[in-house]
Amino acid sequence: MGDSMKIAVLLLAAMVLAGAQEVLTNDSIVKMVKSGLGEGVVVSMVQTQPGKYSLTADDLVKLKQAGVSDKVLAAMIAKGSSGAAPARSAASGPAPAAEPDIPRDLDVGVYYKKDSKWVPLLPEIVDWKTGGVLKHVGSIGIVKGDVNGHLQGTHSHNTAKTPVEVLIRAPEGVEYTEYQLIHLRENKGNREFRTVTGGVFHESSGAMRDVLSFDAKPVGKRLWKVVLPSLEAGEYGFLPPGAFGSANSASIGKMYTFTLLE
C-alpha cells in the first residue's frame, strides 16, 4: 500500500471515529491515539471537529500518561480557549437567566458568595521559589516545571463555609480550566504549596500533590460559576494563569485565597 493510500485510510478511520461521537472528548482523543492514528491526524481532528474537553491539571496529566503527545494537548487547549465548541456556546446562553442574582459587570478576578452577596475574593502575594525543583525555563522567560509557592501567615483574610460558591471572571481568551485550585499547607507559621507551571506535564514526586480538580458552568461571557461542596476545613486558593512568569530564582505572583471554616 502506497503512502498516499495509507494517509487516506488513516483519514477515513479518523472520520469514522469522529462521526461515531458528535463532539470529541478526552476519551475519544485517547481512543484515536491508542488506535495508532498519527499525531498529525489527531491534531487535525481536534482543529476541525467540535470538541468538549476537560482540561484541568489532573485531566492533562492523565492524557499525557495515556500517550497523548504535547502537540495534541496544545491543540486541545487552543480549541478549548477559542470558545469554538458548540456545546460550550450553547450552555453559556441560557445560564445567566437561570441565576439572576449573579452580576454581569464584574471586573476580571475571583468572587465568592458571602451572606447571599457576591464579594471579591481578595488576592494575596505569592512568593515563588523554584530552588532545586525547577525543570527548565522557556524562551520567553516563562518557568516550566515544579515550583514552590509561599504565602505569609497561616490564614487568609477571606473566610467561607461549605458549600463554597465562586465566580471566576477570566481575561479575554482565557478559560476557567487554566486556573488551579490549590490546597495550602501550613509550614513554620506560613502557608505553602507545590504545583507545575508553563505547560510541562510530567511525573514528578509531589509536583501535583496540592492541586485539586473542580468543575464550573458558564453563566456569562468569560464568567464561570464554581461550587465546591465537599472540601475539608483548611486553607485554599485559586491560582490564576500566568501567575509565575520570571526566570529568576525567586519571584512574586498572586493567589485568590480563602479559609474554609468548620
Overall geometry comes to globular
Distance between the termini: 67 Å
Order of strands, main sheet, comes to: 3-5-9-8-13-14
Give the SSE order as H and E letters: HHHHHHHEEEEEEEEEEEEEE
Number of domains: 2
Percent of residues in helical segments?
25-40%
List unreliable stretches of 5+ residues: 16-21, 82-97, 131-144, 198-205, 245-249
| Gyration radius, in Å | 20 Å
| Main beta-sheet strand count, sense and barrel state | 6 strands, antiparallel, barrel
The chain-level mean pLDDT equals 76
Structural class estimated from helices and strands: alpha+beta
Strand content: 25-35%
Number of separate strands: 14
Helix count equals: 7
Please, could you describe this protein's structure?
- The strands form two sheets. A six-stranded antiparallel beta barrel has the order 3-5-9-8-13-14. The chain has a five-stranded antiparallel sheet with strand order 2-1-7-12-11.
- Residues 16-21, 82-97, 131-144, 198-205 and 245-249 have low confidence and may be disordered.
- The chain folds into two domains: 3-88, no CATH class; 98-260, no CATH class.
- The chain contains seven helices and 14 strands.
- It has helices at residues 3-20, 26-34, 39-48, 57-65, 70-82, 86-92, 95-98, and strands at 109-114, 117-120, 123-129, 136-137, 143-151, 159-160, 164-169, 180-187, 190-197, 211-212, 217-220, 223-228, 234-239, 250-260.
- With 262 residues, it is an alpha+beta fold.
- Strand 1 (109-114) and strand 2 form a beta hairpin.
- Helix 3 runs parallel beside helix 5.
